[in-house]
Amino acid sequence: MKIAIFSAKRYDREFLSAANASRHELRFFESHLSEETAGLAAGFEAVCVFVNDQVNATVITTLDSLGVRLVALRCAGYNNVDLTAATKHGITVVRVPAYSPYAVAEHTIALILALNRKLHRAYNRVREGNFALDGLVGFDMHDKTVGVIGTGTNRDCGGANSCWIRLSNLGVRSTHQRDMSIVRCALCGAG
């Protein structure tokens, strides 16, 4: 299958080419898919798009006229795709059903640690040659409990509305809390 890949970055080329293993003919375009660039899909059976690509009714009509039969999204969201128009034109739309819950959880912990240690401020100060610690000192996260509200489909939280994580030597133990009326923030005490 010939696939036009829009909004392609270097890492897209690297990982998609490796995963493809020459099964399909891939052509990478740095430009976003839009009404102005849809013509680039001429001769392709499928397009692969990302979050900033526009797959509205006009683009769908153009893709249909070019013979495109499949729109594959490299993301979970599909708010940038006119599904009604795709159905009308017989174009199949597929997407990533979910991302790694481990990667999402790890990123959340990374953000918590970065905010606690004020890495965003420290980075800017160091670039300016200022190595003073004033206003940059965080606190130990050891044995703190962190609440994550709105866990989505992260099954590690048992489908609960929130997940409470006890940080101990950065080992993680999770518990589940459905009754939000008893929840208090472990960091500031707010509830």
Give a summary of the structure in a few sentences.
This protein is an alpha/beta fold and 191 residues long. The protein has helices at 10-20, 57-65, 83-88, 101-116, 119-127, and strands at 2-5, 25-28, 46-49, 70-73, 92-94, 144-149, 162-168, 171-177.
List keywords for this structure.
single chain; 191 residues; alpha/beta; five-stranded parallel beta sheet; three-stranded antiparallel beta sheet; 8 strands; 20% strand; elongated; disordered C terminus
Question: What's the average pLDDT?
Answer: 81
Question: How many individual β-strands?
Answer: 8
Global geometry? elongated
Helix content: 25-40%
- What structural category characterises the helix and strand content? alpha/beta
- Beta-sheet strand percentage? 15-25%
Radius of gyration: 23 Å
| Distance from first to last alpha carbon | 55 Å
How many strands, what sense, and barrel or not for the largest sheet? Answer: 5 strands, parallel
The sequence of SSEs as H and E is EHEEHEHEHHEEE
Treating each run of at least 4 consecutive H or I residues as one helix, how many helices? 5
Order of neighbouring strands in the sheet with most strands: 2-1-3-4-5
Describe the protein.
There is one protein chain. The chain is an alpha/beta fold and 191 residues long. It is 27% helix and 20% strand. The chain has five helices and eight strands, in the order E-H-E-E-H-E-H-E-H-H-E-E-E. The protein has helices spanning 10-20, 57-65, 83-88, 101-116, 119-127, and strands at 2-5, 25-28, 46-49, 70-73, 92-94, 144-149, 162-168, 171-177. The strands form two sheets. It has a five-stranded parallel β-sheet with strand order 2-1-3-4-5. Strands 6-7-8 form a three-stranded antiparallel β-sheet, with no helix packed on it. The radius of gyration is 23 Å and the shape is elongated. The N and C termini lie far apart (55 Å).
